[in-house]
Structure formats: C-alpha cells, structure tokens
Amino acid sequence: MAVYFDHPIDAPESSGAPVQLTWHPVSPVLAVASSSLSTGGTVDVYMQQGDYVEKCHIEKPYQPTMVRWHPTKPVLAVAWENGEVILLTYPSGGHTALPSTHSISCTLLEWSGFGSRLVTGDQNGVLAVWNIDGKGRLQGNHLTKHEFKRPLSSCIFKPATPGDDVAKLAKASVLGDPNALDKFGWNKAPLKIGPQEELTFYVSTTHGTVYAVDEHGKSSELLSVEGAIKHMYYFDKRDVLAVITETMVLSQYSLGSPGGAQEFMKVKLSSKLKLINHIAWTNNGLLITTSGDQIIRLWDLERDDNYVLSLEEAVGFEQDEIVNCVAYSSGKGILAAGTSCGRIAMWKMVFASNGNKTDNKILWKLQAPTEIQGNVTQLEWSSNLSLLAANNSHTVLILSEHLMSSHFSQQVAAVQLSPTQLSVSQFNPEVHLVLQSDSHIKGVCGTKESLTIWSGKQITVYEISGTAFCNSGSFTCDSHVVAVHGENLYTVEPNRVQIRTPQGTVKQLLTFSKTEGNPVLLSVCQSYLVVGTDTAHIRVFDLSRRDAKAHSSAKNLPEFIPNVGVLSSVKCNANGSQVSIIITLVNGRTDHKVYFYDVEMDTITHFDFSSGRPSSGITPSEEGERQQFEGTDLSGRCPISHFWDESEPRLFVCETVPISSEGSASVSVDEADVSVVALFCTQEHGLLLHDCYLKPAGLHSLLAMDVPYYYFVCKLFYRRGCVFLPEPGEPSLQPEEASPHHHQLSKSPTAPKMVSRRPLRDFVGLENCERSTRDAMLNFSFYLTIGDMDEAFKSIKLIKSAAVWENMARMCVKTRRLDVARVCLGNMGNPRAAKALKEAVVEPEAEAQVAMLAIQLGMLEDAEKLYKSCQRYDLLNNLYQASGDWLKALELAETHDRIHLRTTYYNYAKYLESVGSKAQAITFFEKSDSHRVEVPRMLQDDTSSLEIYVNKMRDKNIYKWWAQYLESESDMDAALHYYELAQDYLSLVRLYCYMGNIQKASEIANDTGDRAASYHLARHYEGHDDIKQAVHFYTRAQAYNNAIRLCKENSLDDQLMNLALLSNPEDMMEAACYYEERGTHMDRAVALYHKAGYVSKALELAFATEQFSALQLIAEGLNEGSDPALLTRCSDFFITHSQYEKAVGLLLAAKKYQEALELCVTQNLTITEELAEKMTVTELKDMSEEARKELLEKIADCCMRQGNYHLATKKYTQAGNKLKAMRALLKSGDTEKIVFFANVSRQKDLFIMAANYLQSLDWRTDPEILKTIIGFYTRGKALELLSGFYEACAQVEIDDYQNYGKALDALTEAHKCLTKAKDTSGKQEVKLLDMQHKINLIKKFVHVRRLYEENAEEAVRVCEALLEEPDLDPAVRVGDAFGFLVDHYCEQRQYQVAYRRLEELQKLLPSQNLRYYISSTSLEALQREMGVILNHSNQKVIMKDDDEVVEELNESHS
C-alpha cells in the first residue's frame, strides 16, 4: 500500500487561478499556466515538491491558451490569446518569441516526436511549422505556412517508426537472405538505427475536416466528418486515426494507402449536453471519458471492448460526487480520477490470467483514494511515475507517492494510514490509538515507551502514556532513516551514525571510513544495531552498555557476493550472531537470495529462493522430513522483506513473491502470490526450513515475528472521516481480529486496527501459554526439524497439558510425523483417533494416513489438501460426504472420482430422502441409475405421486413394477395395460391364461416370439393335452427337449427329426437311440449320431446297415483326433472305391505315413507342399528319428522325380542330408537360393558345388557372381579349383579386354593358390612351372607397354625379342605383340616395316581378324599409304592398276 504526500506549489502572489498544467516528459518539472481577469496571465515552473523557480516566470496582460514541453529538452512553448508564442528555457529563464505569424488566439501548439518541429495554429486557420535545432532553439522563420480558412482545433503527429533491427538483419544475412544482404551494401542508404522521427502530422478544423501535412510541408485533405472535431488520437498498433467530434461521435479510420483514410467504425459516446467532457487516451488504444456524473467510460479499441467504472457510495464516495477529470499512467497502470468533492480515486489495471497483457480481460482494482481540498478539475501524471499534479481551481498540489511506513517492536506496532496519520496498536495490554502529526510522515519507529516519526526534515518523539501521546522532543534532522533503542535515537549522515537523545543532542558518533561508505540502513533488534552502507559494507554494534561498542568489524560484501549493487535491507537477530541481507544487483533487480552473515564465524551463507535450496547447512535428512512441505514450492521466487524473531535468535522469516517474466519480483505486493517462509538459522545446522504458507487473504504484508505470533499489516480501505473498511474484494477479518469500528459509518475519528496477528503453526491453541511452554515448543520444533527425535521428546516430556499435546499432534499433520502423532494421541487420551490412525496404515500413500490423523483432530482443510496432494479422490469424496459437504462431493465425483459417481449420487439421494427433499432425491436416484427400485420404494406410501412418476418416466422396469403392484391389488385390466407398456409378454400371457383368454395369449406368443411367454403357454397346452400346440410353443420357446419328449411319447417321428437337429447333442443322441431301438429310419439315426459327435457309433451303424452315402459323408469329417482304427477302415473304403487322395488324407490322420507315401508312389499322386507337411513327423513319439529321416528322404526322392526341386530341398534339409538338398537346388537353377543355402549350411562340399554351379553362369559380366565364386572356393578350401578359376579369369582379361595387367594379377593369385594347395596327383610342380613361365612372359609384355612411354625404341627391341620366345602364344597372344609393333611403326610413319610385320602376322594367324590385334587407325593408314586393300575377314590383299581400293568380300560372309 502507498500514501500520497501533497505538496502545494509555492505560487507567487501575482499568479491567478491555475488553468493548465503539464509535466516535462523527462524531468520532474511542472509548468503551470494561471489566469486572472484583472491582471492577465502568467506561466510558472515548479520543482517536484512545489518549489518555485523564480527565473522561469512569464507574465502578460492577456491569457495563456496552451503550454507544451519539448519532448526531451527543457524548453516550454507557451501560446497566448493574442497569437504570440514564446519559448521558455528552464532553468535559466531565457525566452524567445516566435516571429509574428498569428494575430488571434492560438488553438494549436504541438511538438513533433523528437522535438525538431513545432506546429502552431490559430482561430483564423493559419498554421505554421517551425524548425527547432538539437538544443531546442528556434531556427529562423517558419518552414511552411498554410491558411485553411477555418478555426483549427487539434493536431497530432504520427508516432516515431522503429528503425532497422541490425542484429536481426545480421542473422538473416548470415543465413543468406538477399534482402538483408542488400541492406549492408556499400551503395545502399545507411541503416536507420533506433526509432525514426515522423514529421507527418494531421490537423483538424472546427468544420469537421482533417488535413494531412507531410514532412515537406505539403497539405492535403484526408477526411471529413459531421460536426466540429475536438480531439484526434493515433493508434499506431493498428495504424488507425480516431476522431472525436464535439457531439461525442467517435470515428475510426484506417490509414492504409498514403493519403487515404477508410472509415471502419463509428459510434456515439455517452455524454451530457452543455458539459465539458474530459477525455484521456493511452498508447495501448484505451479511450477514457467522463461525462459529468459518477461514471468513467472506457473504450478499448485494441480489444473492441467497452466498460465503465463508477464512484460507489459503499466505498466512501458521496451520492452527488461527480468525476471531473481523468489521467492514466501507462508506466504504473493506474487510472486517476478527480472528483468534485476533492478526492482522487485510483484504479489499478490488472489482467485476469497470469498477467498476460495480450489475450486476457482487463480488470480494474480500486485503490485507496487520496483526499485534497476543493474541486479537482485537472490531473497530470509525471514521467517520474510517483508524481501526480492536481488542480483544484485554487492552486495546484503535487502528490508524491510514498510507501506506507510501518514498524513493530516490543509489542507496539505502528502503521501509517495517511500522510500525517498513524495507527498505533499495543498488544500487551491491547490498545489501539491514532496519532495525528503536523508534518508528513516518511518513517516511524516505536518501542513500548515511545514512538518516533520523521519527515526527512524533522524528527519528533512521542511518549506513549496510556491512551495518549505526549511530545517529548522534536528537532531538525535530514536523516532519511532512524532507529531507536531505549532512550537513544540513531540517525545517519555522511560517514557516520549519530546517537542522539529524544531532544536531538548528539551523545556519540559511530564513524565509518571512506572505504566503508556512508550509512544508509539501520536496524535494531534487542540490544544490537546493524548498519548498512552505500558501498555494501555492514557493521554490528552492541548497545547493551552505556556507549555503543563495535560487535563486529566491517564486512565488505562485494568481496563475497558477485554483482552487488546496493543493499536493500539488513536485519540482525536477537543475540547479534546473525545478520540477514537482501541486496539489489547491479542490473537493478532484487537478488533471489537472502544472505546470512555469521558474526562469530565471519562467514556468509545464503538461501536461494530461485532454486528453493540453501547454499550450505543441513537440510532434513529423512525422506519424510524432506517431503514435509511438498505442497509448497519454494523455487522460482524472490524475497521482498525479512525479519528476525524479537526474542528467539534462531528463528527467521521472510516474504517471497514469484519471479516475474522479466526475471525480477513483482513490485505490486498487493496482487502478488506472496508466501511466508520461516527458517531456523544456526551455526551447527545451517539453514533449516521450518514453515511455509501463502499469506492469508485480506493481509497486506508481513510486519514482524514475535513468538507465538506473526504480525501482518491489514489491507484496509479508508473512507472520509477516518472510518475504515476492509479493502473491496478482500474478506473481512475474523471476528476476534476485526476492528470494532469497521462497520460504523460515524464521522468521529476511530482507532482502526491495522495489524493482525496469526499464530505460528506450532502455537495454534497455545497463544497464551507461559514462557517455559513456549521455549519447550520452540525446542521441540527445532529438534523435530533437524530429525533429532530423542531431543525433541526430551524437550516436552515434562509437559502435562493435553492442549499442548493436541497442538503437537496438529503440528504432526504439517510435518507428517505419524510416529510422533501416535505418542501425542496417547498423551491426549484419544483412543478413537489412535485406532483410526492404526487402521489407516493399510493405505499405501503416506499423505492418506496423515489425512486420517487430520480428520480425527478436526483439521478438515488440511485433510482435504493431503488427499488432493496424493490424488486419493475416493477418500476425499468420502470425507466430503461424511462432513455433509455434498456440493463438493458431487463436483469431485464428476471431475476426478467418476468411478464412484453413481455411488455419490445414490448417497446424496438417500441424504435428501432423509431430510424430506423427495423431489431432489428423485433427481439423484435417477442419476445414480437406481430410480427403478428406489423411487417406487420411497413413494410406495404415496400412490398418487407414484402413479404420476410412473407415467412420467415411461420406463419399462417401472411400468412392470407398477403392473405387479396393480395385479396384487386385483386390478387386472390396469395391470394388463401397464404390462403391455412394459412389454412384459410373459406376464401378459400368464395373466390371460389365468383369465381363460387362451386365444389372446396365443396371439401374443406368436406375434412377439417371446420365449418365456411361449414356454408358459406350451405348459398350459400340455396340461390341457393339446400336444400339437404344446409342441409348437415349446419349439418357439426353444425348449426342444420338452418338444422331443412329447414327440417320443406320442410317436411324432417326423417332427422328432427336425426338433432333434435344432436341439443340443444330448437330445440328438436320445432321438438317435429312439430311432435305433425302433429299427426304422436308420438313416436318421446315423445322421443324428454323426451330428451329435458320436462318429464311431455312426460309422458302426452305417457299416452295419450298408449306408455308403452316409459313410462317405462321415468319413469326410474325420481328422487326426478320430479313432485310428476308424480312419484305417475308412481309408480302405476309399481305396476300394479308387478315391486315393481321400485315402491318403485318412492314412495321414491315422499317422500311417509309410502307407500314405507308398500309396502316393504307387498311384503317382502329386505331392504338394501341404501334403508333404502332413507327411512330416513332428513328434518323436510317433516315429524314431532314423525312421523319420528315412521317410523325409523318401518324400524328397518322390518330389525329385516329380520335378518339385524346392520341396525336395526342404525335405532333404529336414532329413539332415544337405548334400542332396544342394543337388536338388542345383537342378532348380535358383541362383539366389543356392547362394543362400550354401552360406547357411557352411559345408565345404556345398561351397564347392555352389561355386562350380556359379561358373556356369555369366560371371564375366556380373562382378557379384565373380566375388561369390571366389568366396565359395576360399571358404570351401578348394585352392586348386580356385587357382584354375583365377587362371580362367586371366585368360578372359587377355581374350576379351587385352588387359594384361589384370591378367597378370589373376595369374599371380592363381599361382599363390596353387602353391598352397595340397599335391594329390603329383602334377602340381609341373603346373606351377608352366604357370610361372606364363607369368614371366606376361610380365615382359606388360613391361614393354609401360616402357614404351619412356623409351619406345627399347620397348620395340624387347617386344621383338619376346616374339622369339618359345611357347609365347598361350601366355601372350602373338597377335597382340605384332599389333604393338604395327601400331608403333605406323605411328613412326614406317609403313613398309609395319606392312611386313602385318604380313608376318597374316602368315602366323591366317584365319584371324586383324582388327582383334591392330587398331583401326593403323589399318586405315596402311591402306592409304601402301595402296593396298585389306580384307579384314580373310586378309586377302588386292592391287589395282589405277590405284583404286576395292574391298572383296569373302564368300562365307556374303
């Protein structure tokens, strides 16, 4: 909460009534224009506390019409009614008059966004634009001048446009965005860094026309409306111009294309005629208007919403009080409204969900109003955010916001109510007083004997005497912080702390060095004073003696804490051993940590609320202790205040709020989710979490902690006459906490209670205990926190009070210590609770067990939270039901416990029935789906209501119940009617039979086909010996056994067969026996035996009676589960009748595999895969392993004969004969399966067989086959075969590709393989020598080709020698050697020599084509140069006399 100090301006005597006021946009400087009918007008400038700036005074004999501050510079533009415009400079007071342009009163005075242009206009429609330099000085005459011939009413500049985002452009350039790259081009326009000033503006006239004036001064008509335009606003988010006429018509125009405006909305705003409407506009599109009543109307153009705020009498405003003016602070989000009774109402803008300002609805929360004198006609917020200027027609008051001062010490609490008023509460004894000061109160500090207040200029000490205050001293002092201990006052000044008497006499000085800095923070606890300086040093002083003594040396916190900005708050504990510190970081944000300085150990630790963990020390070691505050999350928070207990040095408490999205804590404590965290702080155990809970509603902030209470400042909303009420929207205080005056409306001063006490968790119910019990409870809590149960029980073992034990049992609910709770319940003498706790052990969740303890202690809210935390909604539902909270129980069952939803509805219905709410009970019986029984039961004594309900529900079950009731009352006709509605055909037939109407009963049974009705009617017919009808209705009732019984008894053989086939196997068997005994219709007997599943009996009977058609039908249904003897007998039957396939199937079913296979072989039956699988024995018990393999091989042999190689392979494989399996595969020619089978089998012989097969394929063109062949020979260790394959590869390279290099490599590999192979034939040595000779020859030829590039002559010589080698041709083709020589000689143009070599080649290889060996180029050159015709088929040369070349074809090629 905040209060506003009012500072009247120190206006000179010559000033008249203020008419206009305006704050500088940057500096806290206020300009006020005053008017007097006798003396004229004045313009003055004031500081933030109303101090008059004498040099800045302008006085004229005529009235000022407008005043406007430069956006950034201390320059004030003033327009006068004679058309004069003056620029006043602050603080020098220099002023410059603009050149005379206007001859009549100025109505326009507007600066551009950055102040480089000034626009002036008058009632004659003359408009001038002036150029202003960077220092706010006028530059020459006007830039442009327009005459619009109409009075000008308003002017608005377009808002500044954002500049280029350099970082974003740089990232886009790195990603290759061409547009971004162009921006950085050397020949491009320079980037626009930062916002760019817009010089385009819009000006309106009183005749409804709006003109647009561009940056070059050119004007054009933009739009026109009906009526005079009073205001224009620009909404830059939507690029919308809002225009308001004097008749309060709001029009919105979209400014899309340049020079064009499109109207898209027009609305009439509420207003009162002949009243001046005050209008405020916010940058986020909020239009705020007043119309001379108690209502403020708001139009949200961004969200297309509108709503109103009103001055309500319930919160202190008068019935005839009206709103004169409004002002909105976008930085604070506060709307201020001045009223006719001298009040300033304020509303805080809040957002409905998580503070999201884009999508959620805006809410306005009423704040405490401020009262000033007079009629408030104008309000203006300063950019300082804490200053508000108010004009009350007589003077101007500057209101400065001040956080409410409060203090607590020695059972005395003081809370500021207004700028000059304090609420003082004494708790021992309880007294509430009000202190009225003569000056503004900026701080307060109290003890049990005195109360000290200060204003920043003066300190006053009041002695508390009963219910009155006595001024015991007052002196001038500009100390901004004061502390009190006993009769001493502690004030600060640069580099020292002064110890004064209440009269201001300095008794002692505590000096600080320049390094330690200037004292800025003081705090006293018991006899210790802690001082914090502006350089983040702290010192502790002992005040227990006559003179203050240093208790510790100065501690330089920046050495231990990084990024320290300034100290926000320092507090010490009761024995001076610990100092807690909250700091503000260098970035201006509050640190998330609370630091603790141990004076004795000279160490600093901290508790980090962003992570919820301390920096050091011991946290509770047991799992249960670590989970004791599982429901409260300490992380993601920031501390805002902290206190030590007044007497217990171990106990520390602080307030925390969630960290906002900007990373800092929200400054609005009223609206934040504030939690109170209590810690134990000791040297031995560090920081231990003791308690954590959300701040109760209706309380503003934590004030202090003094065991057994927390002390809070209340949220109170005050009225005129010092009568106080709870803040709107907040709950009232509890009766014992509420002020006795808070419902009174008396205008006499009252003593509002601004401080509320809340007991500590461990002291609920023990608020008035004696000191020894209090200390024992504190020790118990401490030891329980650290997990030392022995010491915890030792500290309380001497306590005999049942109330203390009950309180500790309640505490066990918070700490979840069931072991301690059992001891407490025993000492309380509460066996019922102990029994319930023992029974709750069966619950798997610890929270559910603790919840039962809470229920037994009456802590239903805690039990509710525990059940929710462990998600035991079933138990929570039972709790709600047991406590009579049925609405919660129903809501819970509908959302989380749907498995018990109907049960909950039923229980609630029973509850409603018990309290007589039968109508509601019916509803919930219906929801529980138990209404068919429960509602008739409930209404059975009220038959009229029951009949109405029956007819209303139209439910068959209810109809049936009601019909039975009517039947019991002998109302047969009505019973028949409701039985018919219920479609209960059995009851209808039963009742009609009872009444003797058999015909009607038969019709119902036949029409509906209801089995129960038909059965009842059949029994009736049977009883009356109508066998035919009885059989008919037994059949419709599907009671075939009864129908069969009647047929047998009455020899109805024809119907018997049909009925038996419809019935079950037992009835079929019985009918078959009947036919067999009678010896007639044996075919029916066989069919029934077969249908009933007695196949053997059917077969025997079929064979005995020679019913072959039936026998064949039965045999088709035989399978492996049939009797083998029957299968064999049937198979013989099929063989006899040449149905061999069926016979094979039966033999296989009989597991006679050999006979089945022999039958297939002898009768040449095709063995399919399905038949082969049936012949394959899977169970060893049917056949030995050897016989099984033999059978499989026979099957495979048969498949081989039939050409089914794949199936043969499969069976050979199953028989384990992989060699035969491979042979079968080789016959199939399936290369892929051959390769796969060889790889899977991993047998040498199979690898060799597969490789041999692959050689038969086109391995020369398929590299994969080539690799596979080599791999198989290698894995099969057939090195000799591999050598032969390599040799074949070498020959292919020579014959097909003339690639002697690869051939050499292949022969080398062949030689290696042959060397490694075992010599089994004795010819290996000869092969090796022969192969080595080939290798040598090929090496020479390869060498010749390579040498040719370096030394052609030597290569030719070696090649000539090579031709002389014996046995050259198998290794090196002679043609290749001659071709080499011919190509060489042709290249050297030695065509004669080349031709001779060619002739030698023709003699050696007369049948070969020359093109195999000699290039086409060489052959063409020889034909051309030698004049010969070379026939490439038979190499015949023909010479022509005329040197013409003729090609003669060989006859073999003709």
Folded structure, characterized:
The chain is of the alpha+beta class. It has 46 helices and 66 strands. The strands form 17 sheets. Strands 26, 27, 28, 29 and 30 form a five-stranded antiparallel β-sheet that branches. Strands 46, 47, 48, 49 and 50 form a five-stranded antiparallel β-sheet that branches. Strand 35 (412-418) and strand 36 (421-427) form a beta hairpin. Helix 19 (985-995) packs antiparallel against helix 20 (998-1008). The radius of gyration is 56 Å and the shape is extended. The relative contact order is 0.02. Mean pLDDT is 80; it is low at 617-631, 661-670, 729-749 and 1432-1454.
Please provide a brief summary of the model.
The protein is α+β, with helices and mostly antiparallel strands and 1454 residues long. 36% of the residues lie in helices and 26% in strands. Helix 45 (1391-1404) packs across helix 46.
- Helix segment count? 46
The counted number of beta strands is 66
Task: Tell me the structural class.
Answer: alpha+beta
Radius of gyration: 56 Å
Spans where pLDDT lies below 50 across 5 or more residues: 617-631, 661-670, 729-749, 1432-1454
The percent range for strand residues is 25-35%
State the end-to-end CA separation.
120 Å
Helical fraction equals 25-40%
Largest sheet: 5 strands, antiparallel
| Overall 3D form | extended
Mean pLDDT: 80
